[in-house]
Amino acid sequence: MNKKLLALYGLKWNPFAPDVPVEALHVTRRIESFCWRVQQLVGEGGFALVTGAPGAGKSVTLRILAERLSEQRDVKVGVCSRPQANLADFYREMGDLFGVELRPHNRWAGAKVLRERWQTHIDASLARPVLVIDEAQEMLSTVLSELRLLCSTRLDSHILLTVVLAGDGRLLERLRSDEFLPLASRMRVRLAIERATPDELQEYLKQALHKAGAVKLMTPELIATLCDHALCRARHRACYAARRTMPSGSGIAHGCRAAAVGRAGGGSVPFGIVRPLTTPRGRRAGGRWGGSGLACHARTA
């Protein structure tokens, strides 16, 4: 969405885009508690786990957590960008994240250098470096095992790294297997994100609109209808809202068609109708609204 279109809606940013600012994200009590516990875990090191269905808000939780950790003094946060990488590429990325030159063909030397770098950081700041891994269910078994062994030393009595893993149900299934029981037993902080209720989704959406600067962009009826059709997932709610309220790529005058409906034909329930935000100068002879500024308002059949 370009700046001209944002100005028409009176928005600071697109509230339905995935890249909204972190300060605009809704933080529940459970997420608040999880972030606080991980912040305390940084002083001791260990593993934390976030699980939930696709679209439930795992990546958003990691964004909030990474932002808060980065605000702490002397806390180094690295985000793994390729969880599906093989062991050699995993070491290459670890070297890039923590500023050391590693040779993937010599893993013993690579592990030694990484541990020395982490220990130097701990001695200087009394805080463990943090590694955040989203989509951890995609990680190879060898990489997960290597990460577990890499994070501790002195017969597992001295922890060098704080690791936050996030994944869906496939990650939980892997952690229940005999192969990964040693890793599962090291999870010191857990957060299971459940599917949100329609009321919770309405709260999320209202905050998104408030932070974006357009509280009245949608009526309560439209918000309720969107959240009822969002399958209890925040991502689906954002996609529905974006489709029903934002203009398509064909232009402002052709965007945001009146009364988006659930199905064609009679008996359908419209999500909302379109009318100008300010003056009716964009109205045409045929009764359609032009591009003088659009806002979505709901009505029931």
Attribute tags:
disordered C terminus, 9 strands, alpha/beta, 301 residues, two-stranded antiparallel sheet, 11 helices, elongated, Rossmann fold, single chain
Task: Indicate the topology.
Layout lengths: L2 H7 L19 H13 L4 E7 L5 H14 L5 E4 L6 H12 L8 H19 L4 E4 L7 H10 L1 E2 L4 E2 L2 E6 L1 H8 L4 H4 L2 E7 L4 H15 L7 H9 L5 H12 L27 E4 L17 E4 L4
Parallel strand pairs: 1-6, 1-7, 2-3, 3-6
Antiparallel strand pairs: 4-5, 8-9
Write up what this structure looks like.
By secondary structure, the protein is of the alpha/beta class. It folds into 2 domains: 42-193, Rossmann fold, CATH 3.40.50; 200-297, no CATH class. The protein has helices spanning 3-9, 29-41, 58-71, 87-98, 107-125, 141-150, 169-176, 181-184, 198-212, 220-228, 234-245, and strands at residues 46-52, 77-80, 130-133, 152-153, 158-159, 162-167, 187-193, 273-276, 294-297. The chain has a 5-stranded parallel beta sheet, with helices on both faces. Strands 4-5 form a two-stranded antiparallel sheet. Strands 8-9 form a two-stranded antiparallel sheet. Helix 2 crosses helix 3, helix 4 (87-98) packs parallel to helix 5 and helix 9 crosses helix 10 (220-228). The longest helix has 19 residues, at 107-125. The chain is elongated. The model is unreliable at 248-301 (pLDDT under 50).
